[in-house]
């Protein structure tokens, strides 16, 4: 008899029915984003080619008079249709119907967020530096959906069980106070420029405490208000930012080269140039007087 390998890793791959629509939405979102980026890059690479296009080759969508229709328009339509469908199914709909609507929503959301920078800047900055905002928005959406699928809740600080089981004024007051304190920490973290810490911290509360205690990023509003008259602290924030951002910038430059077809590890000069563009101190508030040395 041939031996069999039976491994129990301690977790189940079964998806609860309540999370199936969200899982399908996330998968549709990720696939649509990658397919869309691939198609757009292909169209751009063929823009200067005089070779006649075959029927199956991707091309820009144009309306009458040469109007270019961005794929964000299709995304908005799909999001509206799927949203109306899910609202209609909210009372009597089942898991299969919600799953189908969520897939449509994931596709539409990916098309919208892929051109989020266009909506934000009201300008076609898809291939410009500002166009990276779209990628950041996609990463945020994927992170939030992933945390929800893993069972984390953005209302983890708001203890629903206590709220339902204990209806006394004292218990509910404690829950509300803790919720407000947690939201206050989240605001401080965001004012310190730590968007990812604030986002994930809404699901994992201890991260908010860490983010609120640590130094602000040098370009953030908190640094503008608190560090511009404390040069030593601003210097520490700048040095810490360069140290933490360096591996991120190296990975980003390598990824850009890999997408271009020439993967190579960036040299220090190129990394330093990128860091100089990204890292800067917040300007002093207009009503501030001359900068004074920090008293230790």
* Amino-to-carboxy terminus distance: 76 Å
Return residue spans where pLDDT drops below 50 for at least 5 consecutive residues.
Answer: 1-11, 291-296
What structural class do helix, strand and pairing data support? mainly alpha
Number of continuous helical runs: 12
Q: Determine Rg (CA atoms, Å).
A: 24 Å
What percent of residues adopt helix (DSSP H or I)? 55-70%
Question: Given the C-alpha coordinates, what overall shape results?
Answer: flat
Elements, N to C (H/E):
HHHHHHHHHHHH
Number of distinct beta strands = 0
Beta-strand portion reads: under 5%
Largest sheet, strands/sense/barrel: none
Number of domains: 3
Mean pLDDT: 80
Keywords: Membrane, Transmembrane, Transmembrane helix
Organism: Mycolicibacterium vanbaalenii
Protein name: Integral membrane protein
Key traits:
disordered N terminus, mainly alpha, disordered C terminus, 296 residues, flat
Task: Describe, in plain words, how this protein is organized in 3D.
The chain is mainly alpha-helical and 296 residues long. It folds into three domains: 15-44 and 66-151, no CATH class; 153-214, no CATH class; 221-278, no CATH class. The chain is 60% helix and 0% strand. Residues 1-11 and 291-296 have low confidence and may be disordered.
């Amino acid at each position: 008899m041939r031996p069999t390998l039976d491994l129990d890793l301690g977790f189940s791959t079964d998806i609860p029915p309540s999370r199936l629509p969200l899982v399908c939405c996330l998968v549709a979102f990720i696939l649509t984003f990658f397919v869309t980026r691939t198609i757009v890059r292909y169209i751009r690479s063929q823009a200067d080619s005089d070779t006649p296009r075959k029927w199956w080759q991707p091309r820009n969508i144009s309306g009458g008079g040469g109007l270019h229709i961005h794929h964000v328009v299709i995304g908005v339509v799909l999001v509206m249709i799927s949203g109306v469908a899910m609202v209609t199914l909210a009372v009597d709909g089942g898991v299969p119907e919600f799953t189908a609507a969520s897939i449509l929503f994931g596709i539409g959301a990916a098309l919208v967020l892929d051109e989020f920078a266009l909506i934000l800047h009201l300008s076609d900055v898809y291939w410009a530096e500002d166009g990276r905002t779209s990628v950041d928005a996609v990463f945020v959406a994927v992170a939030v959906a992933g945390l929800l699928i893993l069972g984390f809740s953005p209302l983890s600080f708001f203890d629903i069980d206590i709220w339902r089981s204990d209806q006394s004024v004292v218990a509910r007051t404690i829950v509300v106070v803790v919720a407000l304190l947690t939201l206050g920490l989240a605001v401080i973290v965001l004012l310190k420029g730590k968007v990812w810490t604030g986002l994930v911290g809404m699901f994992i509360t201890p991260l908010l405490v860490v983010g609120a205690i640590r130094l602000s990023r040098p370009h953030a509003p908190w640094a503008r208000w608190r560090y511009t008259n404390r040069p030593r602290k601003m210097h520490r924030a700048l040095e810490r930012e360069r140290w933490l951002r360096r591996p991120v910038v190296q990975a980003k430059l390598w990824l850009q080269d890999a997408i271009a077809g020439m993967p190579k590890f960036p040299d220090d000069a190129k990394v330093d140039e990128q860091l100089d563009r990204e890292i800067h101190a917040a300007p002093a508030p207009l009503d501030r007087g001359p900068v004074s040395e920090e008293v230790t």
